From TrEMBL:
Reactions accelerated catalytically: L-threonyl-[protein] + FAD = FMN-L-threonyl-[protein] + AMP + H(+)
Family annotation (InterPro entries): ApbE, ApbE-like_sf
Annotated source species: Halioglobus maricola
Protein name: FAD:protein FMN transferase
E.C. no: 2.7.1.180
Molecular function, one GO term: metal ion binding
Lineage: Bacteria, Pseudomonadati, Pseudomonadota, Gammaproteobacteria, Cellvibrionales
Assigned protein family: Belongs to the ApbE family.
Amino acid sequence: MTTKSRLQTFGRSCSLVITGSGDNEDELVAAAESELRRIESKFCSYQQSSLVSQINQAAGTGAFVELDAEARGLFDFASRLWGQSNHVFDPTTRLLQNCYSEGGELIATESQLQQLLLIIGWSKLEVTDQGARLAHTGMLIDLNSIVCAYAVDAVRKLLTKKGVTSALIELDQDVATIGKAADGANWLVGVRHPQGARTAIARIKVNNAGFTRRGDFEKRIAFKGENFGRGLSPVDGHPVPGLLSVMVVAENCLAACGAASIARLKTEKAAMQWLDAIGMKWLAIDRDLNCHGPLAPGDGY
């Protein structure tokens, strides 16, 4: 028996497929939805009462916001990505997105960019036994991309503990699976063609694993006559000349998220060399809309 459920959470559509689980499908779906709602409410920056929003609201006041073990784990993960990316992955750069239009055009002056850069930097977040606080008024952090991957993994863990042996959890760019489909078929994730074709250019196997896509070639920034992704540098506020989109398959969704997040903030050549070195399966789309990687079409996967 297969149960399919779709709900809105994290501001996007989430699909849940559970196969061969017996007669308690409704209970499993309810438990999964409850876990998603819990994590969204606790960590998403657009939730006014979330822990992240509390830290943002207290920025510059000197007040600490208490962190429990779960929160410290997420902040530690963000700090590791910050370090591994040579400080280019920076959750405080959310402010810079206001300098670009929805269409990706720079709408701020260089002077405005420089003013914002004064209050940007993950190093300006202080985490102690008392909790976390931001040094300057106006600062904010946004951990949503990490939180989404974490939430998908959390649901996978919950369903596994409840005895589920076949499931797929898909939250927009993040996917986690348990086993294969009940009929033995592979869990597949489709990737559309960057040149605008509606058909998939690749169908990626994600069996008992996590998948993440970071960066969106369809929402690229046109900066100084070139294509850029929406990853913005905490150094100058300009788009990073890296890959437009990176997709990674890993042991879990958070690991895939970490690899994809770092890779898309490196220069294209450095990113692909780094992805090869870490040994995960990946597919990337460069600024000329070409595909690369072990999962790219024609690479035998």
